[in-house]
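JOB MANIFEST
job_type = single_chain_structure
chain_count = 1
residues = 464
[input]
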Amino acid sequence: MSSILVVDDERSLREFLTIMLEEQGYEVETAADGDSAIRLIKEKSFDLALTDIRMRKSNGLDVLTAVKQWQPNTPVVMMTAYATAETAVEAMKKGAYDYLSKPFQVEDLQIIIKNAIEKKKLADENDYLKTALGERYHFSNMVGKSSAMQKIFGLIQKVSASVATVLITGESGTGKELAAKAIHFSGERRNCPFISINCGALPESLLEGELFGFEKGAFTGADYSKPGLIESANLGTFFLDEIGEASPSTQVKLLRVLQEKEVMRLGSSQPIKVDVRFMAATNCDLSRAVQKKEFREDLFYRLNVVPIHIPPLRDRKEDLPFLIEHFLNIFTKEHKSDRPIQGVSHPALARMEAYHWPGNIRELSNAIERAVVLEAEDKIQLESLPDEIIHGHSAVNEWIPPLDQEGHIQLEATLDQIERRLLQSALDKTGGMINKAADMLDLSFRSMRYRIQKHKLKGKYRNP
């Protein structure tokens, strides 16, 4: 039930408003003067304040000021029998939601109150979500006891206090976006937007429209004007995931945004100033891409102000027990709150410690969630883990080929399996980009494409 504070020195009006609002389903509290109202505001939360302007002792503007100080999301509707333009302007400048002249229509008041309370609910929900996001993505919630991760946490803490551009590198699944969110939600821009885009997920024509926006008539089908995501991130943070996949044309436009702090919508000649903190991430070697003329050198240096490299899970195995415990807590609450799983059995932990983890933290999270859902014991058993962890399939150098019924190894079939695993590993590490996977395996693009088709794998096509 929404609560309303009614403040007026006319007893008859207070009684009328109380009866009318209670019939509408509101909880009503009244005050006969400004001082009494201000004491109530300091003691109790309200969803709306309805106050006269001219009263004995403190007036309605003093009540408005107190509400804005103690309950900033609570809307205030002003009433007066002495309406002037000056008082209306002063009330609105101080943050009043609306202004009514006495006598007023009850229907008008009811509509104003309903809309004002809905606005407060949205503001409260927005504050709650911001607080929840801040708690979830604060760097203190990132897990890792290894020296490498401790250095990263220290760097995140330092850089979050600045507006410096950050370039985060690391393999797929290492938590690059999580690190970016930790920086944002630990900094002064935490209450402003965090907006991200995957530069490899959209074709060039769509990507530029999403990034920079467009004006009506800029291209066929542009029936309206639309602000871009960078513009929408004003005063907040914009995160460019997989920045290495951006086309040369997009790289030029991004460079201008970073240099000039302004965006140009497609179809417009008027730049729009923006105050945005930029962060970018990639799973490829941008310095090597610069040498191969695949990425602009000037953009690379604009992005690489504060570099942060997230190591793969296989290089920080000492963090594995803490990460397992972390994900167990999360997924036990999510899936089995009535019967928590206490830990991991020794055989299961041994296999997890021996595993190569090509999918890094993301793969570990999925494996723990799967095990929590399937496990019937109070500890995760080996049988509840994915087959690739049980048999170690993803680490080619640890993989033992199966024997046929006569105890022989089928060489051709085994080589095919090894080739397939190597191809898939290269595609995983390059985000599915065929040309980059070919470079990693020292194959031509045509040869790589043939092998992908042969083994029925999936990859993203882009001209080498």
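[summary]
The longest strand covers residues 277-282.
The CA atoms of residues 217 and 223 lie 6 Å apart.
exit_status = 0
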